[in-house]
Amino acid sequence: MDLRMMRYFLAIVDCGSVTAASKQLFVAQPSLSRQLRRFESSLGVQLFSRMDRRLVLTTAGRQFVPIARDLVARAAQAETMAAAIAAGAAPDLVVAAPTTTINDIVAPFIATGTRVSVANVIETQPADVYGAVTRGDADFGLGTSVPMRSLHAEVLIRVDVWAQVPEDHELATSEAVDLVDLVGFPLVHLDIGHSVRRAFDAVAADRGLTYDAIAQTRAPRLGQALAAAGRGVCVTSDDPRYGLSKARVLVDGAPLTVTLYAAWDQEHYASVDIEETIADLRAFTIARYGRDEDTPPA
Question: Name one GO molecular function term (predicted).
Fold first, then answer.
């Protein structure tokens, strides 16, 4: 497909006419009109209707605009990447991650400024982290579900699950609470899309336990706000906020944890840089949260 003609097509769309686009592109108006007709013929689709000497996008044309913009943008990105590779420059990497991981791990890591090559972050729902990688929207992803087999994956860290409460709650001075005891309190839970909730429910089901969830939320910060307001105990792996105290959730004396994976395509042109960045990110995360003995390759 002719990228030059897609750029011409988008110029016509943005300028509103072939005449205006020809001036912007420095292409003669008759030549641009002929090239547009040939482009439509090669696609087998009429992109514009000719009405009273005006061009109006057809339904197919309107549907094609976002496709053309995406292809032109990706082509520009490819050219920039190729120039960086030729110059031997380290690539600017894009990571996909859920909100909690961005707030508690990725953003603090970027803030260190030490050998950080992460230039952008795509905030995704937990279920779409690896999809962003396979679509090419991100160079690597950080997620708590097991990555698909088509991606190379490593365990970044296993993080503790916490019971978070305001300072006047009876658990506020506890360093840990067993899950068997925790279910006796009203709970503020994350929804089932979060790995913390799935890990908690798996243990509860295995032991035949039930509990009262006074609220379920997709946003961990909202759950923490409800706990701070005295509505219940927030069960989360997030760092505490709003003055909450935290008690580690235990199962038979061992911490309840969720696993954070890093996943990427080993055929990626910057695979070596991704691996180095993930190694730096793992070292940072272990220093911040501990548990270096729990981070073998997946």
Answer: DNA binding
Instruction: Report in angstroms the alpha-carbon separations of 165 from 86, 90, 188, 229.
Output: 54, 44, 10, 9
Q: Structural domain of residue 119, as residue ranges?
A: 93-152+260-294
Cα–Cα distance measured from residue 259 to residue 189, given in angstroms and rounded to the nearest whole number:
18
Q: What are 183-194's pLDDT values in tens digits?
A: 999 999 988 888
CB 190 within 8 Å of CB 258: no
Neighbours of 117 (CB within 10 A): 16
What is the maximal distance between C-alpha atoms in the chain? 80
Whether the full predicted model's pTM is greater than 0.90, yes or no, is no
Query: Which amino acid, one-letter code, is at 13?
Result: V
Contact predicate 104/240, CB 8 Å:
no
Domain count, the chain: 3
Is the domain of 36 the same as that of 77?
yes
DSSP, res 102: I
Q: What is the CATH number of the domain that holds 266?
A: 3.40.190.10
Convert the pLDDT of each residue in 215-250 to its tens digit: 888 888 999 999 999 999 999 988 899 999 999 999
